[in-house]
Every structure is written in structure tokens, then in C-alpha cells.
Amino acid sequence: MAREKDENRIDRLERLAEEMFAGIAQLRESQAKTDEQIRRTDAKLDRIGKQLGDLGLELKESQAKTDEQMRRTDAKLDRIGKQLGDLGLVQGEVAEDLFFRNLKGAFKKTKMDIKKVKRNLKRKGEGEYDLVAVDGGQVLVVEVKNKLDKRMVDKFLEEKLPRFKALFPEYEKYQVVGGMGALVVKDDVGRYAEKAGLYVLTQTDEGGATLLNREGFEPKAFN
Question: From residue 51, how far is each of 48, 56, 221 by CA, in Å?
């Protein structure tokens, strides 16, 4: 009986040992699978990280190209702006020169007898007047533009003419009359300026200057 019991105990120990070894083997197999899964996951993460890194590099390169393109565009716009500004300045000088040279002739059929014309009469930092001419007791103040519009007429009437005598007291005893000259004057704008009491001048086909005011026009005195 004792021997039988010992053999049963040995059998149980052997089975227990086999089960333990089998469990250990399963754990090892499971751990191996887990390790392999972790390795694959790490590999995937490495690939994703590399892809993201490449994408970031591409984005940086793209942004750098965009910044460079914007810089070039800004430089072109600056050059164009300067060219347009220079062109406007040149046109302004052309218009001033045209009316300066032809002002006396344009007023021959009026009651004014202009003897001398001054150009760019200014008080530094305070005001500038394109053309100023004297006839007896009157002084004609002319504002020159490339293309005339109603806003320019209003500004001349409201801001520039009222300040003329204050800036140039030597003309205090004169009666001020105003005029506007432009290379381009639309009919409605010309009538608007005339109705306000201003002489209106524009260029002729021959390169001279002429008055657009209708017959019988009487200028307004801006005292």
C-alpha cells in the first residue's frame, strides 16, 4: 500500500511538472509573439516617423519656396509701384508745363490780360500752388491735374483757395479767381467746376491749351 501511494504521488508530481513545463512553454510562445508584435509595431512607428519627418521636410521646403516667391512678388510690386509713381510724376510735370506755357494764350479772349505766370509758388511745409498769374487787381490761381474729377474741384475750393492769401500776404490787395487745368476733363466735371465759378482748361489737339467755359461765363471772386 505504501509503495502504491508513493507511485501515485510521483505520478502527480510528474503530471504537475509536465503542466508547469507546458505552461512555461506557452508563456514563452506568448512572450515571443508579443515581442514580435512589439517589434512590428516599432517598425511601423519608425516608418510613420520617417514619413512624417519627410513630410515636415517637404512642408519646410514648400514654405521656403512660397516665402521666396512672395518676396519676389513683393519686389516686383514695389518696382511697378515706383514706375507708376514716376509715371504719374512725369505726367504731372507734363501737364504743368503745358498749361504754364499756354496760359496767356488761353486767356486772350477773356477780360483778363495776363502778363506774367509764376509756377510752383510754395511755402515749405504749408502749401503749394501750381500756377499763379496777375492781371491788374486780380490774381489767378490755377490747380493742374492729369485727369480732373469732382473731388479735386471740391478740395481746391474748400482747402487750397481759402488759404492762398494767408500763405502769400503779398497778394492781399488782389481779388482771387480760381482755375483748374487738366489733360482730361469730362463734360460733367467741367460743368461742375464752371458752376462753382472756376475757369476750366484742357489741352488741345495741337498740344496747346484752351478754356472750356461757355460764352458769358463770369468767374467767382474768392476773397
Answer: 5, 8, 81
Most distant CA pair in the chain, distance: 157
How many angstroms from the chain centroid is the CA of residue 106?
Answer: 39
Q: How many C-beta neighbours within 10 Å does residue 104 have?
A: 16
Instruction: Give the tens place of pLDDT for each residue, 119-131.
Output: 999 988 889 999 9
Q: Please state the separation of Cα 148 from the chain's center in Å.
A: 23
CA neighbours closer than 13 Å in the CB half-sphere of residue 103: 30
Cα 201 to Cα 125, 129, 143, distances in angstroms:
28, 16, 10
Sorted by sequence, the CB contacts under 8 Å of residue 214 that are 6+ apart come out as 194
CA 59 centroid distance within chain: 29
* 185 pLDDT above the threshold of 70: yes
Cell of residue 9, nine digits:
504521488
What per-residue confidence (pLDDT) applies to 46? 82
Reading the block at residue 166, the C-alpha cell is 494767408
